[in-house]
Design a protein that fits this description.
This is Myo-inositol-1-phosphate synthase. This protein is of the alpha/beta class. The chain has 13 helices and 11 strands.
Length: 386
């Protein structure tokens, strides 16, 4: 099943790491550590093989992909040997990257995006193309009448209104082009009622939001533990220090607020209340593409005895996120091939703020994900045997 993976923000750190990783896996130069879909519980014939993935994307910047990969290698994100071993493969992907549509109306830019996606699919004889948003976090969308339904959206776009935030404009174009959409950011994406209705009308599956790669991943394990032991969590405070482009983006208060809201949801919905404290995100340029999170949890046990727990998470966000991007592309492609449409709620395992998820417990989400994968494999697809 030849599958296109179209990355919005294709020259960013997460996308570049995903591209180098996919090329290295395809060439047999690395193993699939971090790729959830290569675990025995998920792997199977419904998923496109790494050799079947064809990569492309949009970005507003023009730095050559090879230069971005070299910079990430110098920063310790990528092994330099892989970048040195893949010059021809990186050059081939470079030829599939397009400048983000600019100028004109949003309707004009959406039309360019649709054309780029359909040309990409046709040029490579792809069965389908999955669009994955890995661009910078944007502020929460301001309400607009055009968000209400497809007819209102069509009228607003025809009138030249700037009705959609960037992530939603890409989601709209993806649906128009018949492409499944994955939002790896906390941006609005496909969550607007007009786009939800349009995706249902066109039979397009989609997934999101905000990839779960660090502190929130730990929260989704620890919060259910406190709840199941009937321990009273009194406060949960976290400090996140980020470098790189993501940190710089989140220095903007509006983008920061959108990210914090996504990160906090797991606690309120798992514990049944939102404990005192909050999450603070700060930009520390010297950290580069790495991040550190420190959390302090205070809780009470039997007879009200007060206790506390602390943990520190230090990781490379791009290296944690990139395999999940590939996992999501493979699973969403398989879901599309199997006829799924609408929100893929069983992919909640991958997200901080998952669509329609009944649980934020990582263990419960894992069970749902395994069941989803088993159903995909049992149903059969047009994928070639491995």
């Amino acid at each position: 099943m030849r599958t296109g993976v179209w990355l919005v923000g294709a020259r960013g750190s997460v996308a570049t790491t995903s591209i180098v990783g996919a090329l290295a896996l395809r060439s047999g130069l690395t193993g699939p550590t971090g790729c959830v879909t290569e675990l025995p519980d998920l792997r199977g014939p419904a998923l496109p093989a790494f050799t079947d993935l064809v990569l492309g994307g949009h970005d507003v910047v023009t730095t050559p992909l090879a230069k971005r990969a070299e910079a990430l290698a110098a920063a310790g994100v990528l092994p330099g040997r892989l970048v040195a071993a893949l010059p021809d493969e990186l050059a081939a992907v470079e030829r599939e990257l397009r400048p983000a549509p600019a100028g004109g109306t949003q309707a004009d830019r959406a039309a360019v995006t649709v054309r780029d996606l359909t040309d990409f699919r046709r040029r490579h004889g792809l069965d389908r193309v999955v669009v994955v948003n890995v661009s910078a976090t944007e502020p929460a969308a301001r309400p607009h009448p055009g968000h209400a339904d497809p007819d209102a959206l069509a009228a607003a776009l025809a009138g030249g209104d700037e009705v959609l935030p960037p992530s939603s404009l890409y989601a709209y174009a993806a649906v128009r082009a018949g492409c499944p959409y994955v939002d790896f950011t906390p941006s609005t994406g496909l969550r607007l009622p007009a786009l939800v209705a349009l995706a249902a009308e066109r039979g397009i599956p989609y997934a999101g939001h905000d990839g779960k790669t660090g502190e929130t991943l730990v929260k989704s394990v620890l919060a259910p533990m406190f709840a199941m032991r009937h321990l009273a969590v009194r406060s949960w405070s976290g400090v996140n220090l980020l470098g790189g482009g993501d940190g710089a983006t989140l220095a903007d208060p509006a983008a920061n607020a959108a990210k914090v809201e996504s990160k906090q949801r797991v606690l309120g919905e798992t514990l049944g209340h939102l404990p005192q404290g909050g999450t603070r995100i700060e930009y520390v340029e010297a950290l580069g593409d790495f991040k550190t999170a420190w959390d302090l949890v205070t809780f009470a046990g039997f007879l009200g005895t007060g206790m506390r727990m602390e943990f520190t998470w230090h990781g490379c966000d791009s290296a944690l996120a990139a395999p999940l991007v590939l996992d999501l592309a493979r699973l969403t492609a398989a879901a599309h091939a199997a006829g799924h449409a609408g929100p893929l709620t069983d992919l909640a395992f991958f997200f901080k703020d998952p669509l329609g998820s009944p649980t934020h417990s990582l263990a419960d989400q894992w069970t749902r994900l395994c069941g989803f994968a088993h159903r995909l494999h049992a149903g059969g697809t047009d994928a070639a045997p491995r």
